[in-house]
Amino acid sequence: MANFTYGDSSRTGDDKYVLAQFRSDASLAWVGELRSFLVRDELKYKWFVPERHRVMSNAELWRRVENGVHQAEITIIDPRSYSDFAIAELLEQQAEPGIDFDLKTINEKSGQYIIEWSPVGRIGAFDLDWLADNTNFENPSDFTSHGLKKRAGGKLRDAVVLAARSHAMVTPAELSEILSSSFGGGALDYQTRMKYVADVTRVFDIEHPKSLPILNEFAQRLAHAAGVPRSITHVMNRTKRVYESTSHDVDHIQAADLAAGWAVDLLTLTNGDYRAVAQRFAWVGVNGVVIPG
User: In this structure, is residue 178 part of a structural domain?
Assistant: First the structure.
């Protein structure tokens, strides 16, 4: 499963959603070593924190844990940026707080923007020519931002998880590459097209099952937009590319739990300094923007 990527999440005290991922070929011997040291049959950040200083006293183990955790790729959704935009838009329309809109209104609009500006929303807005006579879906589904939010559960939290997972499946550069080629920017070569079949596979910790059918359809739409032949995207419809699994027996997901918690603590300690987080992890993206390390 060389192309699998595994992820788990955590949240900050100010509602930022942090999703950590490890690729299947990541070096994870340290996970078993740390479990043994902590005398746990599963590794979770909440159990690691109270023992942190004891782990640090073992210099060699601590070095391996630090190096191992920092292999993670971090995706962050900050809902505040979207709510600020929603409020500014309402005020520009001369709407009055407490009269014309309230927190529920802001959360509703923010959730829709979070999806609309994420990869799953961007691909959903793209008018794929195959939808008119598509044979890949028995019942063509609602892939508008409003429809996606409703299918995901309808709440702001549901929008955040769905958007974060889609951001984690395709980088901003890859999405730009796909959309550019679809709008006449030049056809992608075969090898590049096929990576959007192989590399979108994700295994997340059990958290949000409603997002899975959406993300599996997203993977299929993404491949089609990249120019993957219909015969292959049709096969993708019968196989799952995105699913959830319990972390107990999966070292990658346990490592992701640790990395997500680590990133959350780092954000708290640095007062939300994304660059400080980017300096400690392999890759960090915030609301679809890559943060340089």
Answer: yes
Q: How confident is the model at residue 125 (pLDDT cuts 50, 70, 90)?
A: confident
- Residue 172 inside a domain? The answer is yes
- At 57-84, the pLDDT tens digits run 999 999 999 999 999 999 999 999 999 9
Report which listed range, 25-34, 120-129, 168-177, is most confident: 25-34
Domain count, the chain: 1
How far apart, in Å, are the Cα atoms of 220 and each of 76, 194, 232? 24, 12, 9
